[in-house]
Every structure is written in C-alpha cells, then in structure tokens.
C-alpha cells in the first residue's frame, strides 16, 4: 500500500506517518523505485498500535518497547523461554496500564462533558 491508502486505513495524517518513520517508530517494509514508502498489512497493524496508544498517554519510547516485544514474539524465530516470558510480562504490563488509563479517562469524561456544557450555556 502507498502512504495515502495507509493514512486512510489508519486515520493518521501523512505527516504523522512520516514523523513515525523519521523517529524509527514504524518503518515501511519496502520502497518503490521512486522512493515512495510501501507498507504491508503488518506495517498498518503497527501504525494502529501506535495510534491506539497515543490517546492513552503512552510515550513513543513505551510504544517502541511494546512493538519490540510483539515483534520478537511474532517474528517466527524460536524465542527462548526466559526471553519469551519477559516479553509476555512486558505486554501484560502494558495491558494493565492501558486498562487503568481507560478507567481514568472514563472518570474524567463526565467532568469534561460538564465543562463543555458550561461553556455552551454561556453562548447566545
């Protein structure tokens, strides 16, 4: 897929996708002869992980750590048991953190809605 299709599928801007590439967070699988990035479904999946982590307040470094763990486990090569357990523990930590951050957002949402309603009431 070319970047425009990837942007449409992920709902990320071209600028954001390019920024993630520049920072090494997500690298395209290939490039066309003209130098355009060509992404696979796996690349899109990685971008989706990044997109989903950002609103929960995860840093690019945290995102990179999660992607490294999942890449290693999904890479097809055998992973020694100790290393596998370490990656699974890391993923579990991210799952727990994500669950907590979602709970925090749910708690904050009524306050945000109340604030928006207060502003709406001030308008003619």
Offer a few descriptive terms:
124 residues; mainly alpha; Multidrug-efflux Transporter Regulator, Chain: A, Domain 2; 2 strands
How is the topology of this model organized?
Blueprint: H1 3-10, H2 14-22, E1 30-31, E2 37-38, H3 41-53, H4 60-74, H5 81-122
Antiparallel strand pairs: 1-2
Helix pairs in contact: 4-5
Give your account of this protein's structure:
This protein has one domain: Multidrug-efflux Transporter Regulator, Chain: A, Domain 2 (Orthogonal Bundle), CATH 1.10.1660. The chain has a two-stranded antiparallel sheet. Helices cover 70% and strands 3% of the residues. The chain is built from 5 helices and 2 strands, in the order ααββααα. The model has no long low-confidence stretch (mean pLDDT 94). The longest helix is centred in the C-terminal third of the chain and has 42 residues, at 81-122. It is mostly helical and 124 residues long. This is MerR family transcriptional regulator. Pfam families: MerR_1. InterPro entries: DNA-bd_dom_put_sf, MerR-type_HTH_dom, MerR_fam. Keywords: DNA-binding. It comes from Streptantibioticus silvisoli.
The unreliable regions are none
Radius of gyration: 19 Å
Class by SSE composition: mainly alpha
CATH topology: Multidrug-efflux Transporter Regulator, Chain: A, Domain 2
Helix content: over 70%
Overall 3D form: flat
Annotated CATH architecture: Orthogonal Bundle
Count of all domains: 1
Beta-strand proportion: under 5%
Order of helices and strands: HHEEHHH
Distance between the terminal alpha carbons, to the nearest Å? Answer: 48 Å
Number of strands: 2
Strands of the largest sheet, in order across it?
A: 1-2
What is the makeup of the main sheet?
2 strands, antiparallel
Count of helix runs:
5
CATH class: Mainly Alpha
């Amino acid at each position: 897929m070319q970047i425009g299709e990837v942007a449409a599928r992920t709902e990320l801007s071209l600028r954001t996708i390019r920024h993630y590439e520049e920072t090494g967070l997500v690298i395209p699988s290939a490039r066309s002869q003209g130098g355009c990035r060509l992404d696979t479904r796996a690349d899109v999946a990685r971008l989706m992980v990044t997109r989903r982590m950002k609103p929960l307040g995860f840093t690019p470094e945290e995102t990179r750590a999660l992607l490294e763990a999942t890449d290693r486990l999904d890479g097809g090569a055998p992973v020694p048991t100790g290393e596998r357990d370490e990656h699974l523990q890391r993923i579990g930590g991210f799952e727990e953190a994500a669950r907590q951050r979602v709970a925090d957002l749910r708690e904050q949402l009524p306050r945000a809605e109340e604030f928006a309603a207060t502003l709406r009431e001030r308008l003619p």
